[in-house]
Amino acid sequence: MFQKIRVQLVTLNAAVLLILLLVSGMALYLFLEHRLLERVDDGLRDMQLVAVQQMPDRLVVRPNGRTLDMPMVTIVYDNQGGVVQQAPDSQFVNGDLEALRDLKISDVPQSIKLDGHSYRVLTALAPSVQVTQANPFFPAGLDVTNVQRTLQVVRNIDAEEDVLSTLLVVIVTGTLLGAALTVGAGFFLAGRALVPIRQAWERQQQFVADASHELRTPLAVVQSHSELMLRHPTETVQEQSRNVAVVLKETKRMTKLVSDLLTLARTDSNQLLIEGRALRLDEVVRDVTEDYRLMAELQEMELHTQIHGHLELIGDENRIRQLLVILLDNALKYTMEGGSIEVICRQIGPALELKVSDTGIGIAPDDLPRIFDRFYRGDKARTRAEGGSGLGLSIAQWIVEAHHGKIRAESTLHRGTTVTVSLPTKS
Ligand SMILES: Nc1ncnc2c1ncn2[C@@H]1O[C@H](COP(=O)(O)OP(=O)(O)O)[C@@H](O)[C@H]1O
Ligand SMILES: [Mg+2]
């Protein structure tokens, strides 16, 4: 899928760039062609004026000083198309002359290729001339005819064409090279840009797969126990209490799991925001640990709290409570009877530190780096019995990071675990 996106991205980019390069290249080419020919055409027009002035009735045409820098040829035709005069002489002969003669009279100079050379030609009507001839039948008489003439000014534009064709080569190779470079660079860059997207996508896929897997087990348990109950429709709830209890327990587990999943899904899409209000961390800790003291006593554990002073924090009280509950839940869950749990809360520099330590089963060094991963559980078989889904610490980590804090865990197997949270007081 990502390969396809990558190819699409690159093709689109390259196509856009290619079009841009082509358009700008063509524009440059046309502009330059226009400018170059404009100069030639101006020269042709000047020359035409001069030539016309110099041919009142005699056919003498000579380029004047201003146009001498442009090697131009002027040709005068009579009304039959015969060449009356060419200056300089004999520049064009036979076939070339025929091709030139065929050009139409026009205000706009035209381009023509003769013998592999390029020329720009301006063809115009010239003033007519009176031709006086002796009449052979009446020796005394004279024949006077008005001959309409055509004046052509021709200029070689090989140099201009040369510049233009070189430019064309430069534009075409530049465009192709640019396109090739864009494709190469684009492919590389698109690959790099897609890496985080691919990773996020894969994480999301994994998350969905794990979530469905986690939901399947309690659902199967609920289904099988409901079926068991249906087999004895006449039995009372009391007689079926074992099955009812299992169904209830699994439903509770699922509710918790779904709400955790929802939390994480919302954090992923940045829909969950942290409310920043002033709160008293010492009071929150006191409050939450009070709720857990009874539970600890029931499991014959000691719960100590050390709260140092008046600890103020900007943050979301509900989320901080949730964080404490997650940490205390774990401490209680993974500590045996007779163990002890300690909660320490104090100010250290610009941050507040919250430490939850227990003398429980600890975490294997191999598991330690992964306990904050979603769905990660140290001992799958055991924690399943404890009802954990492996999402607690992921949520805890999100809460801490949303408060711009840090969370870390230290643990010695069979000795105990300490989770330390540090929250900056100004977040
Ligand atoms: N206080 C603790 N003592 C021992 N192991 C712990 C403790 N806290 C967390 N763990 C380990 O980290 C894993 C992940 O914890 P958590 O995300 O809260 O998931 P859950 O508690 O649902 O299994 C647990 O399965 C457990 O193996
Ligand atoms: Mg937990």
TrEMBL record:
Catalytic activity line of the entry: ATP + protein L-histidine = ADP + protein N-phospho-L-histidine
GO biological process: cellular response to phosphate starvation
Keyword hit for Zinc: no
Bilayer-spanning residue ranges: 12-32, 167-190
Gene Ontology, cellular component aspect: plasma membrane
Localization of this protein: Cell membrane
Membrane topology annotation: Multi-pass membrane protein
A Pfam cross-reference name: HATPase_c
Keywords (A to Z) from UniProt: ATP-binding, Kinase, Membrane, Nucleotide-binding, Phosphoprotein, Transferase, Transmembrane, Transmembrane helix, Two-component regulatory system
GO molecular function, one term: phosphoprotein phosphatase activity
Gene3D superfamilies the UniProt entry points to: 1.10.287.130, Histidine kinase-like ATPase, C-terminal domain (3.30.565.10)
Enzyme Commission identifier(s): 2.7.13.3
Domain Histidine kinase: 210-427
InterPro entries according to UniProt: BphY/WalK/GraS-like, HATPase_C_sf, HATPase_dom, His_kinase_dom, HisK_dim/P_dom, HisK_dim/P_sf, Sig_transdc_His_kin-like_C
PANTHER family the UniProt entry points to: PHOSPHATE REGULON SENSOR PROTEIN PHOR
Name assigned to this protein: histidine kinase
Protein species of origin: Tumebacillus permanentifrigoris
